[in-house]
Amino acid sequence: MMDQKLKDLNLLLLFLSGWEEDSRSESGEKVFRSWKGYLFEALNELEGENLIQQFKNTKSVVILPEGIKRARDIKTKFL
Q1: Contacts 24+ apart (CB under 8 A), 3-10
Q2: pTM > 0.85
Q3: Which domain holds residue 10?
Q4: What is the pLDDT averaged over residues 53-77?
């Protein structure tokens, strides 16, 4: 299992470099997306905690509402 601080840092970086866009599956819905150029182990653990959602054939992830909340809390704490 990866160190919690490292997972928090990866989540914060995903959030800070992310953007909001229209959902590809739900008309009228917005999602928060970020490039997945981070440690695969960290991404897999963040997905396992239901903070992000990965897709096999894309180069980005969706940061889920709980992940956005947690990233904002981390940002407030450290920045």
Answers
A1: 6/39, 6/42, 7/42, 7/45, 7/46, 8/70, 8/74, 10/38, 10/39, 10/42, 10/43, 10/46
A2: yes
A3: 4-78
A4: 95
